[in-house]
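Why do we care about 3D structure at all? Because function follows from shape, and shape follows, mostly, from sequence. That is the central idea of this module. The next example makes it concrete: a single protein chain, its amino acid sequence, and then its structure expressed as tokens.
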Amino acid sequence: MGSVALGRPTDYDPMILPLVSEIAKSGATMRELAERIRVEVSTLYKWKHKYPAFAEALKVHRDFADDRIVDTLYSKATEGDNTAMIFWLKNRRPQEWRESRDQGSSVALTVSGPAAERLLSQLTQSIQPSPINPPTIDCKLNDNGDK
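And the structure:
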């Protein structure tokens, strides 16, 4: 006996590209996109590999959503949000901004550059000690070998 295809037909229609672009631009996941256009996630991946225009619509518009997040993160960092500053620098300059965690609440952070001392002061002030596991800070400033 031959196999019978079950489920909704998954024929690709290029007319769907504007809708896919708009959904991708909003930052939707593949699952969210599949729900919106009423196909299985596996169908999206098949289309992505088979139809270059579909793959490009996903990529370009997902990049647009990612760029909006980068802009927001950058704005928060320049407004003095310590978490945003650390996240940005650890990802953009990993050799200069390394972090290693031990058991408990201790953090070792290596900081270099002219703004290191100011940032170290801000970080020290923003840490809220826990009465159970007080944090320890081991910082090394690499400007002139000072600690």
